[in-house]
Each structure stands twice: as structure tokens, then as C-alpha cells.
Amino acid sequence: MPNQKISxxxxxxxxxxxxxxxxxSLAAQTRLPDExxxxxxxxxxxxxxxxxxxxxxxxxxxKIQKNEHxxxxxxxxxxxxxxxxxxxxxxxxxxxxWGPEKIQKMTxxxxxDPEAGLVFCYAATIGGNGEPLGxxxxxxxxxQIICSGWPLISPxxxxxxxxxxxxxxxxxxxxxxxxxxxxxxxxDTFFFLYLPALGKTVTLxxxxxxxxxxGNNVSFWGNWHQTFLEHQKMERTSYRWxxxxxxxWEERIQEFLDWLRAQPESxxxxxxxxxxxxxxxxxxxxxxxxxxxxxxFPLWLLEIVSGRYFRRLQPVRxxxxxxxxxxxxxxxxxxxxxxxxNLAMKVFKRK
Length: 351
Description:
Blueprint: E1 6-12, H1 16-27, E2 35-40, H2 47-55, E3 62-66, H3 73-83, E4 88-92, E5 97-98, H4 102-112, E6 116-126, H5 137-148, E7 168-171, H6 172-178, H7 187-194, E8 200-212, H8 224-236, H9 238-241, H10 246-261, H11 267-291, H12 297-305, H13 315-330, H14 333-347
Helix pairs in contact: 1-2, 5-8, 10-11, 11-12, 11-13
């Protein structure tokens, strides 16, 4: 689909410090947008003044709306998206810097593959003064999404590991089918979880944006590096704890599965359904295996043979961790007797 109309949804709030550099990078694109739709969430600084002055210098329309009441980041983006008229919508933060070929290369990915519904790019990282931080945003994102628990729902965490909204673009016809954004969910997480059920997800492993850490980022408030180190430490041991939070997520997982089943049939929807249903089998089985490896050894073999271990994070570590913990519980006579009694009651349906 050549000559697709491109919209940028830009959300601002007291962004005068970095906004001009971001706007200059939008105007320097090798493929200019067809419109920029701005949602300002009640800025009290020079943000609107900067936007209005910039709008007079660029060859494309800039539609600026100041919200009457503060909406927050997610709902502000939702409102901006709904005002976009383009075929493809790019999300834009006020404090980053886009590489000159970002729009051109990401749009080409949609044109190359008509089934592509969501496209991500990679991002380099910079500090408040524009200095390189020497770490990929994807590395930070990967640890962040694992520690958030989203792998319990999304099958795309390993393959598509840089889901910040500012690194994404999507077909408007798809995103408007899944709105509104829930009040308790960040907008980029929402798109990362729901859009892959409607179309193909593509990641361009090229830094097309410079993501800025400055201490006031919505998702990394304060010391971003310390937060990243904590996430990274948890990521290395996710085989120990991820399955443990499954039961706290059971209701949320089932709600997502119900939503999936209500969507039109497609191979992408089917892929998501298989993954979520697999989680509903796999993680409870992991906990059963750990209770007693002798009693539940067949379940351990089943999870290996079925491939469910290998379609999830840290499969080899998970396999041996579950077996080791199960064997440890096996040597506890009282535990073994209790597990045998519980199993017998289930087999014979004793009341």
C-alpha cells in the first residue's frame, strides 16, 4: 500500500526543556508526516508557545489541542490517536530525538508486508544533556517487561523486546478496534499485548530513535539505572519466581483470553490463544512438579515432551529447578504421604 497517510500522535506536558529538539527531528525526517496531532495535558510552561511557533514553520498541518482536564499519559495518547486521520500512526514523546529515517524505514515495513499491524524499532539511549549512555533501550525494556509479569500473557516478549510506545507505529484501522485503553494499564503495554492478536508484529533491530533518560520519565522516574539493575537481577532468576505470581494473575489472564476469543478468527489470534491456554496448563503444572518429583514426575515429562517449557522464558533452568525442588520435597516423608493422599482423593473423587 504505497502513499499511505502518516500521522504522528504527540503528547506533551510541561515539556519545554526537550521539546524543541524533538520537534526539529520530526521536521528533519526523510519522509515527512502528513500531520502531527498534539495532545497537551495542561502544560503550565512554554510548551504550547513552542508548539505554536513550530507549527508555522513546517509544511504539514499541526493540530494542537489542550485538554480541559488532565487525562494522564495513557488517556492523552488515546485521545490524540482518535483525532488522527492517517493510515499509519506513530506515537511520539516530547523528550526523545528521532533519527532522520525513522518514518521512512518503519513505513517501508508496513508497505513490504500488508499483514504487518504493529512495527517496533530499536532505540539508543541518551541522558538529559544528549550524552550517549551506551546501553540499548531494548536491553532495558526486556528486563522491564519480564519483571512486570507480562510474559504470562504475551508470547512476544522474547522476539519483540523493545515495546515503548515511542518506538512503535501501527495501522489505525486496527488500533481503533481495541480502544479504549484500560485505566490501570500504560498505553504502550496495552498496544504491545492487544495489537499482536489482530495482525503481524515486526521489529526493526536498528536504532531509529534516541530515547532520553532525564529523571522525570513516566516509566523510569528517578534513578533509571538503579531501576534497570534491579530489573536485570530479577530477570536472571525469573525461572524461580515468574510461575509463582501466576495465581495472582489468573483472573487477568482469563479476561484476556475471553477478549481474544471474541476477536475475529485469524492466525495471529489463534497464536495468542494457544500461548495463553498453554500458560494456564504450564504454570500450575510447574507448581505441582515442585511439590514432589516422584508423584508428579509424569507431569514434568509431559511439560518437556509437549514443548511448553521451551516456549517460555529460561526453559532449561526451569526444567532443572522444578525437578530439583521436587526431589527435595520427595525426601520429606510427611510431604510425600500428604501428596499421595491428595492425589488418591482426586483419583477416586472422594468426598
